[in-house]
Every structure is written in C-alpha cells, then in structure tokens.
Amino acid sequence: WCFRDGKWATISEQLLLPGDIISISSQSGFYETFVPADCLLLAGTAITNESILTGESIPQWKVSVRFRNPKDVFSWRRDKQHVLYRGTTLIQHEAEAASAHLSPHLRSKQTPDGGLLCEVLRTGFATTQGDLMRTILNSTERMSANSSEAGLFILFLLHFAVAASAYVLYHGIYLTEPGEVKPFKLALNCVMIITSVIPPELPMELSLAVNTSMLSLFRKFIFCTEPFRIPFAGKVDVCCFDKTGTLTSTRLNFAGIANPSNALLSDDGGVGDPEISPYFGDSANLDAVKVLVGCQSLVAVEGKVRGDPMEKAAFKSLGWTIAKDVAKPRKNNLSLMGSDRFVLRIVKRFHFNPVLKRMTTIAKLEGAELSLSPSSSSAASAEKGGAGTMKEFLVLTKGAPESLKGCFSRVPSNYDDVYMTYARRGLRVIALGIKTVRVGDATTAKAIPRSQAESSLRFCGFATFSCPLKQDSRDTLFALREAANRLVMITGDAMLTACHVAQEVHIADKPPLLLQGRGSEMSDGGVGKVKGAGGQGEKEEAARLLQS
C-alpha cells in the first residue's frame, strides 16, 4: 500500500519513489513478505530476516524512530535498527498508532491493512541489496588461461628471440657479400625467429593444467566456480579465519553464573579456581537470571525461539521461554515454584551497540514481589512510602566486562582477575547488571535515555558460555600449517578467549604475547591493547616490538 493523491492505493514496487509513505504487513497473504525498498520505520516494531544481506540467520529487531532524538542527524550505520532493507523478509510486525513524534500530516495516514508505517529512502540499485548486486556483477574481472605469468614467460623468451634476430640481421647486412644479401629472406628469417619463440601449444597446455587441477579438486569434493583462478591458489601463503561459526560451532553451551565473591585466590594473589555455579535460589543468582532472561532480543516464530545463539543457550539451560515481549519460566522449571514464579514483560529495548559493547532492556516484573538484594529492596521500600502512584521497573544490562565496568556503582576488587581467568579458559564472559527505577507508567519508562538507564548499575555476576570447536578444525588447520601457510584468526571476541582457541587449533604453538598498559594508561580490561597504538607510527613500533 502507498499513500498518494490523498488516499491509500496498491501499486507495483517498481513505481515506488524516495519519499513515498507506504504500509508493509507480515500478514499480506503471501508465503513470505519481502521489503520492497530501503525504508525508515515511522511507527510500529518489526522482526526481519536479513540473511540475504548479511548471511546471518538471526532475526533482527526493528524499532520506530519514536524515541530517537529528533536533533540527531540520520546515519545509515547508527540508525540501522530503524531501517527495513530491501529484499529482507518481514517475519513479524506489531503496528502502533501514529503518535506525537510524527507530524499531523503523517498522523492522519493510518495504514489500511494494519501494517507498518514507513517512508521510502532508496529504491532499485541504490538500495543496500542493489549495491550488493552491482558488486557481485561488476567487481571481478573474467579470468582466462592467458594469465600474467604466461605473459611474463613469453616476454622472457622474447628477449632471446630479439637478440637472435639482431644477430641474424647484423650478419646478413655486414658480414655477407653485398651481392648475396636478400632483404626479403633476411626479414623472413628474423620474423620466424621472433614468432617461433611462442609455442603454439602453450594455451592448450595451460588449459590442460587447469583442467587436471580441477579434476583433482573434484575428487576431494572441492568445487571451483572459476577454474582459471586455480593457478592463483599457489600464491596463497596466509589463511585468515573467523572464530565463531568457522573454527568453532555456532552452538553455545551455558556454563553457569560466576560471582567474584566466590572466587578462590591463589598464593600469588591471582585467581586460583573461580567457582561457576548453576542457578540456585539465592538473591544474587536470581538477579543474574533476571538479566539473562529479560535482557535479550529473542523472538518466537511458529512456536520456535529464534535469535542469538548465546541468548537461546541461556534460555534453554535456565528453563525459560518467550512469547512476544514476555519472558516466563517453563512449566517444568523446578527452580521456581509456587509464589516464587514470575514473568518479565519487556517495555523498552536498547539493542546491542558494537561500539558500547552492551545491551539494555527496561522490564516490568509481574507475578511476584520484586526480588532484589536487601539494599535494593530497602531503598525501594523507602521510595514507595513517598510516592504511592509510582511503578517499579527493572533496568537489565549485559555486555563485555571491560565495557560495563564503568557503569557499575561498585565492583569487586578482583573483578578483572576473575573474568580474565574465565576468558583464558576459552569461555565467553558476559557481565550482568541490574537496578530499579520508579516512574509513573510504561510510557515514561520508554522515554528514559540510554545513558541514564546504563548508569549506577549493581553488579550481579558473570554469565559464562562455552563454544566447542568443530570436529575438523584442528586437522584442517594443522594441514594448512604443515603446508607452510601462515594462519591468522580475525575475531571480535575477547582476546584471551581467542588466544585459547588459537592454541587449540594450531594457530599459536606457544602462549601468545599480550601487550597492555599499566596503571592509568590501561584501558578497561587492558587486554590485548597496545598503548597509544592509534597512529601509524605507534602501530609500526608495536610490530617491531613483536618481531623482536
């Protein structure tokens, strides 16, 4: 549906123009609903499948621009949670009435099919999918058997041919009797010398070598879409790998909730054997469970929970499920019985930000009294006496330990030592934080800015996850290393975790060297960071230090 000439009408997606106001619904009657253009979501929430663009099958949450600061300049990178991309699939949507954040002109345009109110930003080849198609079609040049190496080989032979022709020409002109000189025969001899240096069977030999290599690869179930690129494989001496999903499986296992207060200190002051405990009924672990089940972006599609593998692993281990924005324990969850059972209704999400390395949600606890630490409960009771109409909401935050450290009101003294110890074991470590806020209603809670929500949090432990290696990772990388290839891992995970995996798959045969600052020069965590390595000079200095 498109709003034109003061009314809604159905038009072909080929007729859409930037600036059009359209309605997109996941209940269109088709098997799948595809987004027809890059659109800005003005009202409503959506869940999309962007695997056609990113290759990731994890559903993505899309929210309207309702709570976005109107003074901020639009950015395709920063505001991607507000954009529906062309070619992606709309899995679910939830329409909402046009509110005050839209102009009176837009507020009058209620969607006829109960769909999402969107504004077209880009169409055709100007969209993200169109740009990807242009890259696929025009980025690579066609290869043939006549490679540059063959040209260099012919050029090398040509030098000898030119030298031989020059000698024949010199001999025929200066060392032969004038009456016996035949210019035509002399020129013919020179041309024959130059042309005969190029073997006529060379293109056939090159094609035969490529076909032989392709058959050898085929026997090993390796298929090549551009066979004449096979000779370039002989130049490869560096192999780069991603970690998650490539060297390790995408399946994560929830190891448990770790609290620095349970860590055992060794004689040298380090962490000897921190305790990773499953869920028990104490208040500390209960708060951590609330963060794990309430701070997530999972969705239920056709009765199945879809989303981030880490969040799915936590839900499965803790015995929880989700329906829309409500997280609730399963019926067979024996850790919560009777009046202890509660549900969390998510009213606001601050989605994961790769720069901040954290995610936050605001949720309402239902079905039981707020179960927090004694200090939080007493503070809430004190506030309750002064404002009887105020409602309590939970702010639930999780993220990288070094990123969340500055958001906590207080952290244990061995905070860094504990999470680094877990990371050295190859575990993925997530810090958990919680606090309560008292506001008038859910609308006021939704308006809380992210900076305010992620301040003065109370630390409630670390969530730890293990990620097993794929079965053939070790053998494959060992074979590559034996073939004199340099192995490199490129990952966004914690450096200590990556180092543990690197040692297991033969990328590193000895403990890697980690450079970090000291004292005030060390950033949060300080792991794997080179002091001042922002400019080219500092990077070269760090490289020379590593080589020495």
Describe this structure in words.
The longest helix is centred in the N-terminal third of the chain and has 27 residues. The termini are far apart. The chain is built from 17 helices and 23 strands. Helices cover 31% and strands 22% of the residues.
Helices and strands in order:
Blueprint: E1 2-4, E2 7-9, E3 21-24, E4 33-34, E5 38-43, E6 45-49, H1 51-54, E7 60-63, E8 83-84, E9 89-94, H2 104-107, E10 116-122, H3 128-138, H4 148-174, H5 183-196, H6 202-219, H7 230-233, E11 238-241, E12 253-258, E13 276-277, H8 283-294, E14 299-301, E15 304-306, H9 309-318, E16 320-323, E17 326-329, E18 343-353, E19 358-366, H10 374-386, E20 391-399, H11 401-404, H12 415-424, E21 428-439, H13 442-446, H14 450-453, E22 458-466, H15 473-482, E23 486-489, H16 495-504, H17 536-547
Parallel strand pairs: 11-23
Antiparallel strand pairs: 1-2, 1-3, 3-10, 4-9, 5-8, 5-10, 6-7, 6-9, 12-13, 12-22, 14-15, 16-17, 17-18, 18-19, 19-20, 20-21, 21-22
Key words describing this protein structure:
alpha+beta, 17 helices, six-stranded antiparallel sheet, 548 residues, elongated, nine-stranded antiparallel sheet, 23 strands
Largest sheet: 9 strands, antiparallel
Radius of gyration: 32 Å
Bin the helical content: 25-40%
- The number of strands is 23
Oligomer: single chain
Side-by-side strand order of the widest sheet: 13-12-22-21-20-19-18-17-16
Specify the number of helices.
Answer: 17
Query: Residue ranges: pLDDT <50 for 5 or more in a row?
Result: 263-274, 277-284, 368-387, 518-540
Q: How would the global form be characterised?
A: elongated
* Content of β-strand: 15-25%
Distance between the termini: 65 Å
Structure class: alpha+beta
Which whole number gives the mean pLDDT? 75
